[in-house]
Amino acid sequence: MGLSIHYSGSFNPSASLREMIEEVKDVCEIYQWKYFVFDEEFPVGCFSKEAYNQDIYGISFTPPKCETVSLSFLSNGKMSCLPNLQFFGNSTDEEEAQYLYMLSVKTQYAGIEIHKLLVHLLKYLNKKYFLDFIVNDEGEYWETGDEKLLQDTFNRFSFFIENFATSIENYPIQSRENFEDYFKRLMEYIHKNKFPDSK
Fold first, then answer.
1. What residues does 10 pair with on adjacent strands?
2. Which residues contact 146 (CB under 8 A, 6 or more apart)?
3. How far apart are alpha carbons 183 and 91 in whole angstroms?
4. Cα–Cα distances in Å, from 85 out to 6, 45, 68, 122, 146?
5. Radius of gyration (Cα) for the chain, nearest Å?
6. How does the average pLDDT of the chain come out, rounded?
7. Is 9:142 a contact under the CB 8 Å cutoff?
8. In what order do the strands lie in the sheet with 34-37?
């Protein structure tokens, strides 16, 4: 739960992975973010294949109070990350296997400035290094560049998270109540607090 940026895509085979890594490292060092560099060169001739090895290529970094941002790829050039490779890399289930190539980063607790900075970094890197790059920004800043909309969305997410946490504290599950009934009662309480005039 919390405002996130979801993204997927591939590395442009005509671009330099090493160069991208160096640029991202520079940003991390300026902002004093922790980072980790994976392999810096793709195997020759792997981009045209669906198959991939068990290595990760690229870089990941972690801004303060933010989830780790993975700018990393499999040997076939598609965006992925180490946890996705570990969880979904050997999956034979088609629906489950699609998560191998879906990345996201929660920025809810990092704040608006970090969120904006990540969006601008992704836009810059997309132009130079990525192909078929798709972003779903829950704050809609990627799509609109609207800071007020981003602030309003952050506030709405924060309100819901705080209200949900308070509701759980004030409305614990009752001894003979199943979880489904408890959750229904909890959501009714949250709805009444969010929309006091509703019945």
1. 78, 131
2. 140
3. 32
4. 17, 21, 15, 22, 34
5. 20
6. 86
7. no
8. 34-37, 57-62, 69-73
Tokens of 52: 């991939």
CA distance 158 to 28: 27
Q: Give Cα separations from 141 to 4, 104, 105, 189 (angstroms).
A: 11, 15, 14, 31
Quote the tokens at residue 121. Answer: 């970094």
CB 4 within 8 A of CB 108: yes
102 contacts 6 by C-beta, under 8 angstroms:
yes
Cα angle for residues 53, 57, 63 (degrees, 5° grid): 135
pLDDT tens, position by position, 54-74:
999 999 999 999 999 999 999
Structural contact between residues 12 and 18, judged by C-beta atoms closer than 8 angstroms: no
Predicted confidence (pLDDT) per residue in 125-173, tens digit: 999 999 999 999 999 999 999 999 988 886 776 555 555 555 556 666 7
The token pair at 158 is 């924060």
